[in-house]
Amino acid sequence: MSAVIRPQFEPAIGRYLRLDIQGKPHRLYIEEAGAGIPLVCLHTAGADSRQYRGLLDDAEVLARFRVIAFDLPWHGKSSPPAGWHKGEYKLTSRAYVDTIMAVIDALGLDKPVVMGCSIGGRIVLHLALEHGPRFRALIGLESGAHADPYYDLDWLHRPDVHGGEVCGAMISGLIAPTAPEAERWETIWHYMQGGPGVFKGDLHFYTADGDVRARVAEIDTGKCPLYLLTGEYDYSCTPDDTRDLARRIAGSQATIMEGLGHFPMSEDPARFLGYLRPVLAQILKRDSKS
Amino acid sequence: MLLEILGLGALANDKPWLMHRGRFLDVSFLLEVGDAAYLVRIHHGRVEAVEKGPFVMPRWIFALRASEKAWATFWQPLPPPGFHDLIAMLKTGALKLEGDQHPFFANLLYFKELLALPRPAAAQERAQ
To answer: What is the pLDDT of residues B61-102, one digit of tens each?
Structure first.
């Protein structure tokens, strides 16, 4: 008689979703776990949904939230659209907002919470402006209204420099020095696996197209609460950038997270959850009153 | 600090993984710590020589320049935000990069690890 095998599966289930985005057919990879309030998680530039592996494996969160993380087109296990080889990838605010709304509609999510990091932290500001009432709350991680490029982005995509090596190396310092080694290098690995030019294309949104400084004061946190969490070691979106953003948006709540950098949910999931749980508790409390 | 820089070869060359990372790297670069200048010569990832200036006509491919205080902060066991990484220091202007940047960016992880070796935390790891 053979022994009973009990595979050590995590709770997350990964599936592929067919949908149209801006009139084009797409195939996106989505992971989810848990039940309750939908919590849609957006990865950083040049990475993928694996950044949320800690959240997708946390029993306490999964007891109250349906955590959903998808890979943007071109990222992770999502495909680029047909014809990708005939043009340069450049993420725009319009495409990013339309993609997120298309996923939410395709899944039929009712008033989800959306949490995004870096470019995801920026796009939640656009979501607040364009579709605020459709969300229960928005959470911006490493969120600022704009970012100036601080190196020549061409280094990220050229044939005489290995894209994976340079993208991983470029972001390694955005991780706090206190991060556990395994989580640090997993976070770097995701960057090393990005497609050619994808990180750079995302940064087009981050450093140019997505500048939302002129409009953030219009965000109505009465319609949709906005929480901002930024790591103290983040020099891409600095704590000062987030404080500046919070000053511009009445009613937003900003927290600077000690011992964390630009990828809090991935570089040190346990420490990050210590900061996220009180935010989720506020969302649940507000939800139970309404 | 001075001894650590002159001893960079001793810190680096017994690390097989760092040598592997730099196996295609042949370069001489200038490292400035305040007024003190060092020429670091690397061949196949090995630190072949570290010479201390002043130099009459130094030849180098790229230069990294920062104040003595900035490097001392970078080499603290747990550096404060902004001084924990070469790119962070480039962003704030604490570090200047000049010359041909190609070998620096093509081997960025190598240079980040090499120049972090004088950190006491790295020294503890070496002792183990």
So the answer is: 999 999 999 999 999 999 999 999 999 999 999 999 999 999
Question: What's the CATH number where A152 sits?
Answer: 3.40.50.1820
Chain A interface mutation, best of B87, B90, B100, B119, highest count of A Cβ atoms under 10 Å: B87
Q: Is position A2 within any domain?
A: no
- Read off the pLDDT band of B121 (50, 70, 90): low
The answer to whether A166 contacts B108, with C-beta atoms less than 8 Å apart, is: yes
In SS3 terms, chain B reads as: CHHHHHCHHHHHCCCHHHHHHCCCCEEEEEEEECCEEEEEEEECCEEEEEEECCCCCCCCCEEEEECHHHHHHHCCCCCCCCCCCHHHHHHHCCEEEEECCHHHHHCHHHHHHHHHCCCHHHHHHHHC
Give domain status of residue A278, yes or no: yes
Q: Band the pLDDT of A231: cuts 50, 70, 90.
A: very high
| pTM to 2 decimal places | 0.96
Mean per-residue pLDDT, A171-186: 97
DSSP A155: G
Q: What kind of architecture, by CATH, is found in domain B2-123? A: 2-Layer Sandwich (3.30)
Residue A7 falls inside a structural domain:
no
Residues of chain B found within 8 Å of residue A156, distances taken between Cβ atoms:
none
Say yes or no: A165 contacts chain B, CB-CB below 8 A: yes
What's the ipTM?
0.93
Number of compact structural domains in chain A: 1
Query: What is the distance in angstroms between the Cα of A264 and the nearest Cα belonging to chain B?
Result: 15
Answer whether residue A1 is part of any domain. Answer: no
Task: State the best of B86, B96, B101, B105 to mutate against chain A, taking most chain A CBs within 10 Å.
Answer: B105
What range defines the domain where residue A151 resides? Answer: 13-289
